Amino acid sequence: MSVPLRLAPGHRNVRRELAETWQARDLLFTFADRDLRLRYRQTALGVVWVVLQPLIAAGIFTFVFGTVAHLSSDGKPYLLFTFAALTGWNLFSGVLTRASACLVGNAHLVSRVFFPRLILPLSVIPAALVDFAVSLGMFAALLVVYRVPPTAALLTLPLWISLLGAGAFGVGLVAASLTVRYRDVQYVLPVMVQLLLYASPVAYAASRVPERWHALYYLNPLVAVIEGLRWSMLGTEPPSAGAVAWSASVAALAIAAGVVVFRRMERGFADVI
Known about the structure:
Layout: H1 14-23, H2 25-39, H3 48-68, H4 78-105, H5 107-112, H6 119-122, H7 124-146, H8 157-181, H9 185-198, H10 214-217, H11 222-234, H12 241-266, H13 269-272
Helix pairs in contact: 2-7, 3-4, 4-7, 4-8, 4-9, 4-11, 8-11, 8-12, 11-12
């Protein structure tokens, strides 16, 4: 009499999972390419929306906070001031929201096909970086129009991009894992992202926040990163070293927490998705 074969998941360490993910890198870029193609399919303007969305938002912020409220823009044109921050904010929110929905959005693959699941949240990063690059090109054109020369601080731009992407990816891993079991996350997350937008110096300068609130305000790790991004792109006041160190620590913690939560819940994705 034949003995039934029982298959069970074995022990998988981080090194092995990273090796498998690297081996499947072609699949990662395939997913990223699919994401870009599907996002702008059957739209009249296509990739132009990547520029129009932050430009319209920057125009609204300029009117409300610059023209009506007369808030300071650190001596820079308010449209450039807000557009610079929005390019970074859209990178952060784009990675976070797309990563959080990547597992549920690909439920048919997760439940039927074996591949390193980490590929799915990683695949949203190239598409988000393409959007960021397009917005950055528009910002360069605006610098020419407003005759604002770049400064040497532009060399620090990769640092701020890395911190924004790392933080968003780490939180996105947690959100994606939780969304598989608790679909409430997909309703709560957009509200939290919207609140975080106004709690970050996107439409206004951090210097406008009363000094007695600075200790609480700078607990938001995006504050120093957006200030740094604006400094690199416009030459405004740089963030303090302590604030940058805090933001980097939170980004690293987010990545670590995201990987731990994702690995612990990964085995049950196919069963409950």
